[in-house]
Specification:
Chain lengths: ~375, ~280
């Protein structure tokens, strides 16, 4: 057993035993713990936790952006990258499209839109109308990008999505009617009777976002366990085999793309309604890379892992703000170290982890074997 | 070649520019000085290439050791390697920024930007000729190297089928390291040429060029050196035509739209996959 412990430590396996125990708990008990955790998250902005606190920036703002927004985005991106295995390096585009939908429809630029509606929407309530529109527009963008490009695989898809992200950003930058490089200011805030969504207090936004994240998590969980989710897994594991087995791979890949895009757009809408002003430079390529890092670091294929990874990726640089210039350096090194110790992510999907463990014994014998597995999953 | 998106390659290139800078200051050239004579240029090109190639090649080997090898041995997926490389790329950029600051470093002029001759109304400058000719020479050398030598054959074998390559007695670790070294040396030379041409470097100099280089490689067909040349050429030409027609701010949009369109019709790039057929 001593060897077992050492091997575990070497592979940094501290989370697996906890996860195993968690699965053995009775469902009612698990529900209580989950509810307690949600309640904890609900009151988190009002607490001052000594170690968690972020020196240099307000803790409750950090909880909304970047942490909360990253979590939502990572859940969306995880559908594309983790579930369906499509490498998307331009995910920020959908985030930007959602944010711009909110900004355009919420300000004078989109005033014409409200006039052609058959009914009157009071100014205050427009956020709630824009929210589903933003999701639909982003999903549409996902379909437009996906339908010609999803026949590509691997690196080719990655670079095309990367290009798409840049196209969206540069187009926004070069179109003067939506503010050009200056972006759009005075984006309205959400409205709910009795709750004040102002500029100063981020807590209501955070709680709204928390509710949205919970809803999305529940929805995606249903989706994962449905026929669609199984189809995604099949595509990720072996696209050719899935196709031969009669899975309409293209349709499901497109579906994954649209779902992911919709969630990204949703995050964009909420983000824009909080920050008041957006510019094209809020949607740099680096953001796409960070989103992807969040998903992979947390455990690609496992929604909760992706959410955890997002929280880590968003939170660490804020936490180490006191290190000043050095924080990105530390962050980069941390990424390398984490990937080296846990290539499957912090909270891997069970299926993925099983695959990696499958490989390991052969791995000891022959390093070359692993290359094959890697190439095949590519 | 190795089916890896090496995100940190732009930082290797950055190291190359830095090596060129070291060489220049070692030779006593500083920004703002008068342009040295022709012998000075030749000496600089040789010493600079030596420095840049050493630095960039060393950086590449270190990168492979620290960020890639362990992951490869554990059979982790491409995504893990990608993220690891991104982390390494952040770290390297920041190290540069912390050491030399975030502003651009100026570089001495080693070659006057005189007009040599005109070609269809376009001015052909001396520095551009040097860059262009060197690039073509490097291309040819690399192509021959991969086609003819033992190591080149090893690289192609590993790219095609790592398992069979191992069975045939190819030491994968060695081949991968040497491939990284080769890539590093190329990046180092590119760094020197870049300095001759642009005369400046900064901590994130590699980023945009890395993306463009990757785009060019994909456009031409991954794992295909001649494809990369064609891709780079097409991309550069189209970008500049696009910029001329739609205005400079649309330059990158044109480039990426072109990429999407080409890949729609030729999903494996202009020249297809000649090295690792059927494995896209």
């Amino acid at each position: 057993m001593a060897i077992d412990v050492r091997a575990r430590l070497r592979n940094f396996e501290v989370i697996e035993p906890i996860a195993r125990r968690w699965r053995r708990l009775p469902p009612g008990f698990r529900l209580v713990i989950v509810l307690a955790f949600v309640a904890f998250l609900w009151i988190l902005p009002t607490l001052t936790v000594p170690v968690l606190d972020t020196p240099g920036s307000s803790f409750s703002s950090v909880l909304f952006y970047p942490v909360g927004i990253y979590v939502l985005v990572a859940i969306g991106l995880n559908i594309v990258v983790g579930e369906a295995g499509l490498l998307d390096l331009g995910y920020v585009a959908f985030f930007a499209i959602g944010a711009y939908t909110m900004a355009i429809l919420g300000t004078d630029i989109g005033a014409g839109f409200w006039r052609i509606l058959p009914f009157d929407v009071p100014m205050n309530w427009r956020f709630w109308v824009i929210l589903p529109i933003g999701i639909l527009v982003s999903m549409g963008a996902g379909l437009i990008l996906g339908s010609p490009t999803l026949r590509l695989r691997g690196d080719y898809l990655a670079i095309v999505t990367l290009g798409f992200g840049e196209i969206v950003r540069l187009t926004a930058r070069n179109t003067d009617s939506i503010g050009g490089p200056r972006g759009i200011a005075n984006i309205p805030h959400p409205y709910l009777p009795g709750i004040k969504f102002g500029i100063l207090d981020p807590t209501p936004y955070y709680r709204l976002l928390l509710l949205i994240i919970i809803l999305v998590v529940l929805m995606v969980r249903r989706l994962e366990r449905s026929r669609v989710g199984r189809a995604w897994t099949a595509i990720r594991e072996d696209e050719d085999a899935a196709e031969l087995m009669g899975v309409p791979t293209f349709k499901y890949k497109l579906w994954a793309f649209a779902m992911g895009a919709g969630i990204g757009g949703l995050a964009g809408v909420v983000y824009a309604s909080r920050v008041n002003a957006i510019t094209p430079d809020s949607f740099q390529l680096v953001l796409s890379i960070l989103f992807l890092a969040a998903v992979v670091l947390g455990g690609s294929g496992n929604m909760y892992g992706a959410a955890l990874g997002a929280a880590v990726v968003a939170y660490l640089p804020e936490r180490f703000r006191s290190f000043g210039d050095r924080r990105v350096l530390i962050f980069g090194v941390a990424m390398v170290v984490m990937m080296n110790f846990r290539p499957e992510g912090l909270l891997p999907s069970r299926r993925r982890a099983a695959e990696l463990h499958d490989v390991r014994p052969e791995d000891e014998l022959d390093a070359g074997e692993s290359e094959v597995v890697e190439a095949e999953s590519a | 070649m190795l089916r890896l998106i090496n995100f940190a390659h732009s930082e290797i290139f950055m190291l190359g520019t830095l090596g060129a800078l070291f060489a220049a200051s070692l030779l006593g050239y500083h920004a703002g000085d008068a342009t040295p004579a022709l012998t000075g240029l030749v000496v600089f090109l040789i010493v600079g290439t030596l420095f840049a190639a050493t630095l960039a090649g060393g950086g590449a080997i270190l990168l492979e050791r620290l960020a890639y090898r362990r992951l490869r041995h554990r059979g982790a997926g491409r995504l893990a390697a990608l993220i690891s490389a991104i982390g390494a790329s952040f770290a390297m950029q920041e190290m540069f920024a912390l050491r030399y600051g975030r502003d651009a470093l100026q570089f001495p002029r080693v070659l006057d930007k005189n007009r040599l001759f005109s070609l269809f109304d376009a001015n052909v400058r001396a520095d551009k000729v040097v860059v262009f000719v060197s690039a073509v020479v490097m291309m040819l050398l690399l192509d021959q190297f991969v086609q003819r030598t033992r190591l080149g054959r090893g690289i192609r074998a590993v790219a095609q089928d790592p398992e069979t390559a191992t069975l045939m007695g190819v030491d994968i670790d060695r081949v991968v390291v040497l491939t990284f070294l080769l890539g590093g040396i190329m990046a180092g030379v590119a760094g020197v040429l870049f300095e001759v041409f642009r005369e400046t470097t900064r901590f994130n100099v590699g980023f945009l060029y890395g993306i463009k280089a990757f785009t060019a490689a994909v456009l031409g067909g991954i794992g295909n050196l001649r494809g990369a040349l064609v891709g780079g050429l097409v991309l550069g030409v189209m970008e500049n035509y696009g910029a001329a027609i739609f205005g400079n701010q649309w330059r990158d949009v044109v480039a990426f739209v072109l990429l999407v369109v080409v890949l729609m019709f030729r999903p494996t790039g202009i020249l297809g996959e000649s090295l690792s057929q059927g494995r896209a």
